[in-house]
Amino acid sequence: MKAATKRIAVGAVATALIAGLAGCTGSEAPRTPATHEEGAPGAKKGAAAPKSAVRLIGDGSTAFTGVQPGLLKPERLKPGQQPPQFVVFSWDGAGEDSQKLFSHFRNVARKYDATMTFFLSGVYLLPEEKATMYDPPQHSAGRSDIGFNDTQGIKDTVRELRAAWQEGNEVGTHFNGHFCGKAGGVGKWSVAEWKSEISQAKSFVKNWKTNAGLEAEQPLPFNYDTELIGARTPCLEGRTNFVRAASELGFRYDTSGVNDQIWPKKDLGLWDLSLQMVPVPGRAFETLSMDYNFMVNQSGTVKGDPSQHAYWGNQMRDGLVRAFNRAYKGNRAPLIIGNHFESWNGGTYMRAIEETIATVCVKRDVKCVSFRQLADWLDAQDPDVLERMRALKVGQAPADGWEAYLATQPEAAAPPPAVKRAQQR
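RE: above sequence
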């Protein structure tokens, strides 16, 4: 797993610097939630699910264990009610290796009453000796740009996935081989090829016990066929055909594109919860809300000048907090943040993310949630109310307050003042 992680980091940086990608990963039917009487307006925290019998699925790699605990109860906004401020922290290529960042950020999430989305790379549950079981589109069987895993790495990753789900977090997918660029990269894949990749990602999760010879281990406590409702594509490539495939397979959201900080809309039936453009303090442009993109704009390498590490981490943290504040005090659009379990530039981005979580998740009316929970809340809202909120531009609060703005049925909104958008690099 560690070796695979290193290959990912180097390959992703090379790809972005050569191709100038907007963003790149560097590693890689909704359930009814339980209810509770606390939480921000329109988003109530779920109580622990009642214990139920475990029913194994297939070879016992996954199981039915009842309603997931720790979810929010999505409630429709009342007329004139201010929406809560949602923040989503998400992780690409989630797996536990020697850095132990998966387990660390699980603890961080619990500390700040947050839930997150972990996008699992399916090959992290496939041992190296079984590599040829993976037949990637436009590549030979057994090929992966992020390698595979070993038995201990699979055990550790499954342990974290199991606990994460039981704590209310979501397990999505970052697919498998992490192929980027022109030579067979995901940006060239057809709808049928995306469906094959998704099917294989599910298979590796549903059969990890047999594939890794770990029959005595405890199962993952969910049915992945219903748990998997969203994804982020490698290097943010191939989104068009992926969304077409995902819409036909019953997915509910995608987070592979580039958006501004405005309220989301649907694309082919999927919520477009893409990464967003956020400030880079001290620079005359904005960048994507992902650790990788800050790194590329700062050092262009995973091992930049050590004397700049603290500054770069502070710059990312302050940029994300600025983005949060302009939404929190403005249009209340959900803030979408993407990360990797990596120690680029001395781990400064991991510190930045942890400090961002500690700063924003404790504020009034703020809910740090998974993509699943955000999609649940959006689906519970009046579409006309969401459309009214979408009319608010980046950082724009309703001129006469939320009570007046959402008191009646939406009507044509007056053109808001222009918001200057800095050039992205």
